[in-house]
What we know:
Radius of gyration: 31 Å
Oligomer: single chain
Helix content: 40-55%
Shape: globular
Order of helices and strands: HHHHHHHEHEEEEEHEEEHHHHEE
Number of helices: 13
Strand content: 5-15%
Number of strands: 11
Amino acid sequence: MCSDKLARNYRVATGLTATSRPEPRRRIATHVAAVVTPLDGTEGTTSRHLEDPRGLARSAGTPWRTCSSIPRLARARYAKGAAMASEQDRSTQEVKLDEIHARLATAVEQLVSGDDWRQAMGFAARFRSRSFRNTLLIWAQHRGTFESGLVTEPEPTYVAGYRQWQSLGRQVSKGQPGYMIFAPVTGQFASLTPHDPESWRRLSRFEKPRPGEAVRSRMVAARTAHVWDVSQTSGDPIPERPVPRLLEGDAPTGLWAGLAALVEADGYRVLRVEHEGMIGGANGLTDYGARTVAVRSNMAAAAQVKTLAHELAHVRLHGPGNPDWAGHRGIGEVEAESVALMIGAAHGIDTGSYTIPYVAGWAGTVADKNPAEVVHATGERVRKTAGVVLDALNTVQLGDGLPPGLTRVKTRPHAERIPAAPFGQRRSEVGGAARSL
Length: 437
């Protein structure tokens, strides 16, 4: 029985099967002789040992450590193989992350003029379910696919992962390249005092929280993933979402009321003034001291809701005491106008009149940060703010880039998230390298 276990463990350790071994007993015994050691530490073997593993297991005299030696050897080989595989995976993932960062840098470099930024924001409005960086990556890669003739539309409509498309009854067409994006790697954190940022500790893979501890998930690293546009797939038809239909100058139904309600929920009064002379010649004005938001009424309805969205962005992003606001007025105006642009684009409003200065002009105004970092940070702040507003509105909107019928798990409200202090920035950690995402 012992020798049966010996042979079985050896086959598992070496990957040998009955069909791959022309002389199974002899080969097993030969290798056994190399690893079996007497309990007294001496080495030795005989021809009988080499040819007869059962005889070896039953031999009298020196007590051999047969059954216990092979499992240890197997575990050692498994551990070594797993370590090598893990190292290869890390190396492969590192190469992929280098590639995706290079693609992202190229996409950012293409944002030169204010019109480039406006187009990027309009695209982000239709793919607001994804981060700004992933939006840029999808946008740039689809453009390359279109230019190579693999797809017929210059911009994507809905994007999803390979298995996500399969779950909707569609299959990625042969030869269609996937668009590389960042995907989160999450970790579990536990705390007995959730409101204390220093109290959170990360749980190991199989560790369970202690009684009474709160548990939260948090992004701790990044990996690469791939998505495909619907035009790169075939199969069951995708249902059409309702889309807003507007006449020139009209405001989407319910948009003014919805935006005004959000402004008031933030503790500000909405005022409509007769002309721009009453607010210093501007279209709108936010007074943080008086806690009022004024919009002139002698404009088209679409212009009024655009202005109200702009001022709501100021309230949410640039109010007194906002810890995330760095105080750069030029960037503040870009952020407010970009939030209004995304909200308008999501409702089908023509955004051609939205004015954004040259990217280099405002992205280069922040000390100790390069313009690319400013573009990333600004784009993500805009996307998050516009996304929260759009989610709160009961209006007909364009899709968010996900195919109808496919949903993603949304993050918890900000108040329930883990405090960021103990963990710092989100980072991409693979094979010892770390990058801010």
